[in-house]
Automatic annotation (TrEMBL), chains A, B:
This is Amino acid/polyamine/organocation transporter, APC superfamily. It holds the Pfam family AA_permease_2. The keyword Thylakoid does not apply. It comes from Longilinea arvoryzae. One of its GO terms (molecular function) is transmembrane transporter activity. It is a multi-pass membrane protein.
């Protein structure tokens, strides 16, 4: 305990020694953590690559496949186009990597699209970025988990009927893990990430060696035929662009490192930047390798067996140990990709909520120091998506990536504008912004061009995506984002108006209350009523007992008892011909209220039965509860509840 | 307004001139009625027969059919047994009619099984009767409506897939009609009841004339074959008894008149008795006639077409006007039978609730002067039964009638015991009981034998029913009734203990409160807090402001603002390391509570945000609500909620 005295006001400070008790939820989620336990541990490039790249790298598990599914409509002629498309996507990756390198060096405290847009483009673009990202985090979970289940099901087809169930179970598992709070810096991440990288490099490597050097790479044995089209469509520009859009989902997750720069060891910008480049190289190679080999071995895109599964069993010649290792590592990395969304979504939601655009509750950290509400919210939305789209990756893909590319565009435009502003500053001049400090950069022109290029190409991709995927699902996201932005703005308006109403600026101290008119509601004369009467007497000398009478016999009894027990206090009996309870009472209160003077206050004293348990509650009318809820909405009335315990 | 003065206490009496406003529910249910509108209108024998016999007479629509369905298992050999069984049931009806004649003359204010058992057998038998009757009212609705739908579907087979939906819609329709309040004495009842009687007499009459006099009655053309059994069972005693049990469902509803004696014109016992005998004659004739003719024309019991439908189209030679009239009248009478349960159930529930065995709310009459809650409860249970048993009469029948016969047994045993008591009184001696007056009856011995016979035969039927239908569903009712009785007793115990706790007998006036320790919870320092502080100052000089601190920065801000605005009142900051809000506060209150003197009271003042609408509510933490709910359960604490309106 610590007692201080400030300007005549005593302030006592003490630490509650309340320790949460063990319960089912502490067992499930882990023992509660003190706020002071929150620690920061930094990581190097090796672990950093594992932690931040699962989202990006795991997308090679579905991006080539979704590209091939679109091309399948054009038959054999179509498949060949996958290789130039993969090259285009890798070029796009290179541009993005360069752009984000610059973001990382500028926003060393974390430079997500929301922060960059907020600093450089203003409120609406920042909210658009937030809406796009929140939507895409939910889709990341749905797509990654659905793809993970698809891998699992390829290896064990007996599980096909349980796809949706498996996917939901995985989401719940990842939710619980995240509610427990995972150390992002944990080296536990390194093992599955590197396992995946090794298995993919091995698959692609062995495949290339067998194809180029040994010439022993055969074709897929007994490929699935469920997507074979009877009528072959011509190869149109539209088809190519649709396939390209599907392929660009490989680039989702590239921004992850720029959000998490603070997790890196110093010099953090340099380390984070190097990690980004490493990640891009691996991702690009795998994308190219998988697409190339898939074409060579004659993979048939299918909903029954994934491209990775067909490729792996062809490269390793059987469903043996290597095949199983490749599939397992892919499933695990996809689950980890979903997991990164569980870090990103609650963090961004809390950031947006702290700015007043989402309910404040989202900024509150639960017993394990994680944003529990955001985590639960994300899991709920993801489960909903999985159920609606039946854990089908191909049906989810048209919704996915458009938000990512929109946020890329906003983030890169913000950076480009920032360089322009930087160019207009004098050397040595410095301007503080909310997320960073702005100063003159001699190479501002080059940097502006790089980020401008990033912004332009991602804008083009966003438009291509929106147009080619509009009917098959993109329209949902395109219409959802403005709705979300409007909701953010409405919430912000509400909080601002509340703050204004509550503000003490230019506020004189309220005048003293001169008279307290007390109304005591009497349903019957018993010990509970007398306890309330006793309390009412401490409030004021102006007390009126009011009984709403439905049954005249009962009213007569109350009148007689009140004469004995009512302490001489005036009793008003309100006859209610329609057997209503609340309305006549409210009408009476209105009467009193209309005579109220300035600085008068009306207090309604309600004797409140408290029964020992919930079951017995239903045996009582609970009119006190209803009365409270109604009276709370009337101005100038204070409600005093005098509990009377029945046990 | 009316002001009186009694022993120094002013009592003001006024009639609320609040008139309920039109709304969807007043449109649906009708304009509210004043309590004074409740009027009593009496009826003669002609209308009385129509009002009280729909339940009993409508059972000829399913009783013969259910008997035949059981016998169908024994093939052609079985059907013949239906005629002696029908005769046995008619004999049973005669015994019951004699017994109830005596009940009617004794209990001229209404002599349901609950009242008779309560007067003569004690609490537990009365509760068993109540449980049995309440269960059976619900089953009456389910069985009658399901049978009504079956008739409808027989005439219009296209409706077969919508059976359950139709049945649920009918229950809801009858519920709404009853919530509006129907005049039981309305001659509206007479038309459909007499229409049914005429159509049935016509069907049976034409059938008999064609069979006996003209010899022109043929066989059912193209009878349904869905219940044809491949393996024919032998005719066993068990099978016969099962069929008999099914047939006894014809007797449900016979007790209706004894419940409703007060509705009859004076001399009401005589009128009611005569009506009972008339009803028994019609019911008995129809039961015999339908069973006999069904056998002659070769009706095949079926779930697709009812016995009534097969019989009517054979007697009238086609699906013409007479056939349609017969089916329509049967459907309507079955709906009216369900309707009588909607009068009986809420009335019995209110009676039981008034005795303290069911929640008191059931005694409350709604805006239309009907027991709305009982009506809604019955509809809910009936809909549940219809959905569970898929509106299938054959599956519902094993649950039905056992409760009716159990209540017959209790009621008749009560009457028999009553005659025994009457025989032991001296002539002219009179004993007042709750439901009637008991005096010496010179013929007590004869009357005791008659009621004793009624009790014995209904007991035998109850046992036969319980044994033969146990597995197919009776076990549900047999185990439900004792559970219900235990619930009734538990509710009674609760109300008794509450009355004891609240009783003012031997109660001294509570001592004055000597000190009020006020705790003001402070989440932030704003206008709402100051309004609460202003109110707190009227309560006591002993005020402590308490802030539970999750965020130290926030706590520091509050401390500084409090120094300016806190009026010198002590501020306690409770640091909450686990970011819990309630627990540290409760711990603090416990501390204060442990120092509390006799006649001290603790008041917790909670500033309560009130947002203009529900949507904005979710944007606030609503900790005040949670706090209130928790504090209500702690003794010796009063909660003052100071609303602060944000609009």
């Amino acid at each position: 305990m610590n007692i201080e005295d400030h300007n005549g006001t005593t302030v006592v400070r003490r630490v509650g020694d309340y320790k949460p008790k063990p319960s089912f939820s502490t067992w499930l989620v882990g023992r509660p953590l003190q706020t002071a336990d929150s620690a920061q541990q930094t990581i190097g490039k090796f672990i950093g690559l594992a932690v931040f790249s699962s989202d990006a790298m795991s997308s090679v598990a579905y991006a080539p496949q979704e590209m091939l599914i679109v091309l399948a409509a054009a038959g054999v002629a179509g498949y060949g186009i996958s290789i130039p498309l993969a090259i285009a996507i890798v070029i796009l990756l290179a541009i993005l990597t360069l752009s984000y390198e610059q973001t990382i060096h500028t926003y060393q405290n974390g430079g997500g699209a929301y922060i960059v847009s907020r600093d450089n483009l203003g409120e609406i673009p920042a909210l658009v970025a937030a809406a796009a990202l929140l939507t895409d985090y939910a889709l990341t979970v749905a797509v990654s988990i659905s793809s993970g289940v698809a891998q699992l099901v390829s290896a064990a087809p007996v599980l096909v009927p349980y796809r949706v169930l498996l996917a939901v179970a995985m989401v719940i598992f990842i939710m619980v893990v995240n509610l427990r709070g995972i150390k992002e810096s944990g080296s536990a991440f390194a093992i599955p990430s590197y396992f995946f990288i090794i298995m993919m490099v091995l698959t692609v490597g062995v495949g290339l060696v067998r194809y180029l050097a040994l010439g022993s790479l055969g074709h897929v044995i007994d490929p699935p035929q469920d997507l074979a089209f009877d009528i072959v469509q011509p190869v149109t520009i539209f088809l190519i662009l649709r396939a390209f859009s599907s392929g660009t989902t490989a680039l989702t997750g590239v921004e992850a490192i720029s959000n998490g720069i603070t997790a890196f060891k110093e010099p953090r910008a340099k380390n984070a930047g190097a990690t980004l480049i490493m990640m891009a190289c691996i991702l690009g190679s795998l994308m190219l390798g998988i697409t190339f080999l898939s074409h060579q071995v004659g993979v048939m895109p299918s909903e029954e067996e994934t491209v990775i599964s067909q490729l792996a069993r062809t490269v390793f010649d059987s469903r043996g140990v290597f095949y199983l290792a490749a599939i397992t590592s892919t499933t695990v990395i996809l689950m980890m990709a979903a997991n990164t969304a569980f870090a990103g979504f609650p963090w961004l939601a809390a950031l947006t909520a702290a700015d007043g655009y989402l309910p404040r509750q989202l900024t509150y950290r639960g017993s394990r120091l994680v944003y529990s509400r955001g985590i639960a919210m994300l899991a709920g939305v993801a489960v909903l998506l999985i159920i609606i789209f039946q854990a089908n990756v191909t049906r989810l893909i048209p919704l996915y990536a458009i938000g990512v590319f929109l946020s890329f565009t906003l983030s890169q435009s913000g950076m480009a504008y920032r360089w322009y502003k930087s160019g207009r500053l004098k050397p040595g001049e410095e301007v503080a912004e909310r997320g960073s400090k702005l100063h003159h950069d001699p190479h501002w022109w080059v940097k502006m061009v790089i980020n401008g290029l990033g912004a332009s190409v991602t804008l083009v991709v966003t438009l291509v995506f929106a147009i080619t995927k509009f009917v098959s699902g993109a329209y949902i996201v395109i219409s959802l984002i403005p709705v979300l932005v409007l909701i953010f703005l409405a919430i912000h308006r509400h909080y601002r108006s509340v703050a204004k109403v509550l503000s003490l600026d230019h506020y004189g101290a309220p005048p003293q209350i001169s008279r307290n008119r007390v109304i005591l509601t009497v349903a019957g004369v018993h010990r509970g009523t007398l306890a309330a009467l006793r309390y009412a007497r401490t409030l004021s000398n102006d007390i009126t007992a009011v009984h709403v009478s439905i049954d005249p016999v009962e009213a007569e009894k109350i009148k007689q008892k009140w004469e004995t027990w009512g302490d001489g206090i005036r009793l008003v009996i309100l006859d209610s011909p329609y057997r209503l309870f609340l309305e006549p009472l409210l009408e009476y209160i209105d009467d009193i209220d209309s005579q109220r003077q300035m600085n008068d206050i009306i207090t309604v004293v309600v004797p409140q039965f408290v029964t020992p348990n919930l079951v017995t509650n239903v045996l009582h009318m609970r009119t006190a509860d209803t009365l409270r809820n109604v009276l709370l909405n009337r101005k100038g009335i204070v409600i005093n509840e005098i509990p009377y315990h029945l046990d």
